Amino acid sequence: MSYHLLYESCGWHTRCALFDERGRLLTLRYDDTSRQLIEGAVVWGRVRQLAQSMGAAFVDIGDVHDGVLPLQTLPTGAKLHEGQAVLVRVVRGGFGEKGAKLDARVVWKEQGHPSTLPTMVLPPPEALKRALRDAGSTPVKVWLPHGLYRDSVAKVVREGQIFQLDHTPDAPPWLAQLDETLAQTMAPVPTFAFLQGDLKVELTSAVATIDVNFRPINASQRNAVLGANLAAADEVARLVRLLDLGGAVIVDFITPRAKADRTLVDDHLQAAMSTTDEHFEALRPMSRHGISELNRTRTGPSLILLLKTPAFVAGAIGLELWRTLAGSNPRLRQQRVTAHPQVATVLAQHLKADVCLRHLGRSVVVQATPATSPLAAYQIDDVIG
Length: 385
What we know:
Layout: E1 3-9, E2 13-19, E3 25-32, E4 42-51, E5 56-60, E6 67-70, E7 85-92, E8 101-103, E9 119-122, H1 127-135, E10 140-144, H2 150-154, E11 162-164, H3 174-185, E12 191-194, E13 197-203, E14 207-214, H4 222-242, E15 247-252, H5 259-276, E16 280-284, E17 291-296, H6 303-306, H7 310-322, E18 332-339, H8 341-350, H9 353-359, E19 363-368, E20 378-384
Parallel strand pairs: 1-10, 10-11, 14-15, 18-19
Antiparallel strand pairs: 1-2, 2-3, 4-5, 4-7, 4-9, 5-6, 7-8, 12-13, 13-14, 15-17, 16-17, 18-20
Helix pairs in contact: 4-5, 7-8
């Protein structure tokens, strides 16, 4: 068994998609120059406020919202005061109205701290390293659309593990599979197929829900329902990790026919979560109506939310442009991108004329759609000359 990792980059945005041997997307890790304060970053921050009743301190780390530092992570006997500099590690990135979760258990050899706070000390591990960590001990083949970033990848991965899609005629369609999965994830109600059914995922401010729908050929058979629930449990474990669903996750399985079946599905889901997801915490027994609740620690905003941010959409456009490098299509003279105004603003910062001509061999014109258009919607038109 081996996993497959698709690596893409356009300079300011890098994306690493990890697939299992069946071609299912397991995790999606990405770097963006506008997204630094994520899991693994180490920062010198400044204590803004102590909240003894919460057992925490609010720390300015340079993010939109102050990070929350549990006082229990401080060394024994250490005390904080407002305005104090403190070295912290981000264990969960901020999202929505919530600040990042921090930890003071950081080993740092240098003495003193910078005069300007907050200051980044160590950036988070790059997306490629995070994706390889997701694979654990499973061997990984790394696929590149072309050779532009082969040298960069070879600094982390052995040369024998690196393959290029443009040099492998019978290569699996990783780009198409990734695009299809992301399109499913960005739908108003993300829906993922399995067997003769699907799983629908919905987010609220408090919980995430996964609704299992199944259309068996013979729904009266107990074994058909049990088999579908066991297969759905595997998909639930994958999706919870992929989408980074956290807190309480409610799963509405097909109502089992017997208590023994509920136990089998519980055990299967427990095993799948425990062996694939280090952030899994607990699973409550399934109710007689087929409702399960699992608890998981978030590492940041759900992928469902991240995919609809201006930075990610702009990055996705950049990656699509970079799939066609200079010289690969001599007749391609220009490309025109139409995108939401917020996305167009981000693109304008990166798609400078000299950058496009140097890397793409053509100009790129960015046009903004009306502000009422969907943020994630965009169009790329080729001008052939």
